[in-house]
Specification:
Number of domains: 2
Radius of gyration: 34 Å
Number of strands: 9
Number of helices: 2
Strand content: 25-35%
Oligomer: single chain
Low-confidence stretches: none
Length: 212
C-alpha cells in the first residue's frame, strides 16, 4: 500500500514536470534550460517507479517459484510405511486377540513418488541399530518384505522398525524422512514360533542423516 502511494506521487510529480516543461517551452522559449531540468526530473522519477515495479515483480516471481517447488516436493513425496503382516500358518486364536499377532513387515511406499536411499533398520529398546536392510529405490505403491532375524534376542522388550529415506526431489538443506513403528517380540505359548505386537506409527523429518 505504501509503495503504491509512493509510485502514484512520483507519477504525479513527473507528469507535472513534463507539463511544466512543455508550457515553458511554448510560452517562454528562452527558458529552455528550466524545461530541460524539469524533463530530466521527470525522467528520473519515471526510472525510479520502473525500478520499484521491477523489484516488486522479481520478488513476486521468487515467491511464486518457491511455492511451486514446495507443491512439487509435497506432491511427489514418498511415504514409506512398515505394515505388519499376519503369518498365514498361525492358529486363529491367541488369548482372544488374533489380530495383534504378526511375523514380518511389508515396507510399503504409500506416497506419490519413489523413495531413494531407503534403509530399514531394527533398533533395540535403547534405539541402537541392530539390523539394517538397504534398498536403493522403492517406487510408489510397491513394497519389500522385511523380517528381522534377531527377534529372539529381544523378547518382551520394546523395539523399533525405522524406515529412513529420501525423495527424488532434492531439497536444500538435504532432508530425510523417517517412519517409526514400535513393536514387541514375543514367543508363542508352545514356543514354536516368534511373533510381534505393534504400536502406533510415527512420522518424522530430519535435516541430514542421523546416526542410530
Amino acid at each position: 500500500m505504501i509503495g503504491e502511494k509512493v509510485e502514484y506521487a512520483f507519477f504525479v510529480v513527473a507528469s507535472a514536470a513534463i507539463i511544466g516543461a512543455l508550457v515553458i517551452v511554448a510560452v517562454v522559449p528562452d527558458h529552455y534550460n528550466i524545461s530541460s531540468v524539469l524533463l530530466t526530473l521527470a525522467l528520473v522519477l519515471i526510472t525510479c517507479v520502473y525500478a520499484m515495479r521491477t523489484s516488486d515483480i522479481a520478488k513476486a516471481n521468487t515467491i511464486m517459484a518457491k511455492e511451486m517447488r514446495e507443491q512439487t516436493v509435497v506432491g511427489s513425496r514418498p511415504i514409506v510405511i512398515p505394515r505388519p503382516v499376519h503369518a498365514p500358518d498361525l492358529s486363529d486364536t491367541y488369548k482372544g486377540q488374533p489380530d495383534e499377532r504378526f511375523q514380518w513387515f511389508e515396507v510399503y511406499n504409500a506416497g506419490n513418488g519413489p523413495a531413494i536411499n531407503l534403509e530399514v533398520i531394527m533398533l533395540n529398546e535403547e534405539k541402537k541399530s541392530r539390523e539394517i536392510q538397504s534398498q536403493a529405490y522403492l517406487r510408489a505403491d510397491e513394497y519389500i518384505t522385511y523380517s528381522p532375524s534377531i527377534l529372539g534376542n529381544h523378547l518382551d522388550s520394546t523395539c523399533y522398525v525405522l524406515c529412513r529415506y529420501q525423495s527424488v526431489i532434492r531439497t536444500n538443506p538435504l532432508q530425510w524422512y523417517e517412519t517409526w513403528v514400535p513393536f514387541t517380540p514375543k514367543v508363542s505359548q508352545r514356543g514354536d514360533y516368534t511373533f510381534v505386537t505393534v504400536g502406533e506409527t510415527e512420522f518424522k523429518e530430519s535435516i541430514g542423516k542421523l546416526a542410530y
